[in-house]
Write a structure and sequence with these properties.
It is globular, with a radius of gyration of 18 Å. The chain has one domain. Helix 6 crosses helix 7. It contains 8 helices and no strands. With 226 residues, it is an all-alpha fold. Helices cover 73% and strands 0% of the residues. It starts with a helix and ends in a 14-residue tail after the last helix. InterPro entries: K_chnl_dom.
C-alpha cells in the first residue's frame, strides 16, 4: 500500500469499528435483559450507528438533513411508544420503524465500503457491521409481524420477546437452523427464507471478496473521487 493510498484509506474509512461496537452492545443488551430501559437503550444505540453511517457516507447536505430529521422524529416516536406501552399495534409499528432505520444503515454502510480504494480493517469492520445490521433488522421485522398479527408468530406459541426474535433471526441468517423456533405462518416463513438467502449471498460475495483483497489497492471506478 502506498503512502497516498494509506492516507486516503484513513480519511475515508469511516468509524466502522465504533459502529460494530454499538451493534454488538445493542445485541447483547437485547439478548440479556427485557426491561423497558433496555428497549430504550437499544433504540439509542441503533440511532447512533445510523448517525455514524450518515457521517461516513458523504451524502449531499439536503439528504443528510432529511435523514437526520426523519431518524430523530421517528426514533422519538418509537421511544414514546416504548415508554407509554400503548399496545401491540403501536409497538409493532415501532419495531418496523427500527427495522427501517437498520435497513437504511445497511445501505449506507455497504455503499461506502464498496467505494474504499484500499480494503482496511475499517472496511472489514463495516462489512461485519452490515451483516449484524441485517440480522438485527430482520429481528425487528419479526417483532413487528408478531405484534401486528392476530395469530402467534412462532409454532407452539412461543413468546416472541427480544431475545427470542434475535436468536431466531441470527440462527436463520447463518442457516444454523436449530429448529427449536420456527415460524408458524407462511408470511413468517417467507421472510425467514429471504433472510437466509440474503445472509449467504452477503457472506459469499461481499465479505469474502473484501477479506481476499485486504490491504490491496484497487483502481478507481468512473465517477469516484481519487
Amino acid at each position: 500500500m502506498t503512502g497516498d493510498a494509506a492516507e486516503s484509506a484513513a480519511a475515508d474509512g469511516g468509524r466502522y469499528g465504533l459502529v460494530l461496537a454499538l451493534l454488538v452492545a445493542g445485541y447483547l443488551v437485547g439478548a440479556l435483559a427485557t426491561d423497558t430501559w433496555v428497549s430504550l437503550l437499544t433504540v439509542l444505540l441503533y440511532l447512533g450507528a445510523l448517525v455514524l453511517a450518515i457521517r461516513a457516507a458523504r451524502l449531499g447536505r439536503p439528504l443528510v438533513w432529511g435523514l437526520r430529521v426523519g431518524a430523530t422524529v421517528g426514533s422519538a416516536g418509537a421511544l414514546a411508544v416504548l415508554l407509554s406501552n400503548p399496545g401491540n399495534g403501536f409497538r409493532g409499528v415501532a419495531a418496523l420503524w427500527l427495522a427501517l432505520i437498520l435497513g437504511i444503515t445497511v445501505v449506507l454502510v455497504v455503499r461506502h465500503i464498496l467505494r474504499h480504494r484500499v480494503v482496511t480493517l475499517q472496511t472489514i469492520a463495516g462489512a461485519l457491521s452490515a451483516y449484524l445490521l441485517i440480522g438485527l433488522m430482520f429481528a425487528e421485522i419479526y417483532t413487528g409481524m408478531s405484534r401486528l398479527g392476530t395469530a402467534p408468530f412462532f409454532a407452539n406459541g412461543q413468546v416472541p420477546d427480544t431475545a427470542t426474535v434475535q436468536y431466531f433471526s441470527f440462527t436463520t441468517l447463518t442457516t444454523l437452523g436449530y429448529g427449536d423456533f420456527t415460524a408458524a405462518r407462511n408470511a413468517g416463513r417467507a421472510v425467514a427464507v429471504l433472510e437466509a438467502l440474503l445472509g449467504q449471498i452477503f457472506l459469499v460475495t461481499l465479505v469474502a471478496r473484501l477479506v481476499s483483497n485486504f490491504g490491496n489497492e484497487r483502481p478507481p471506478r468512473r465517477g469516484e473521487d481519487g
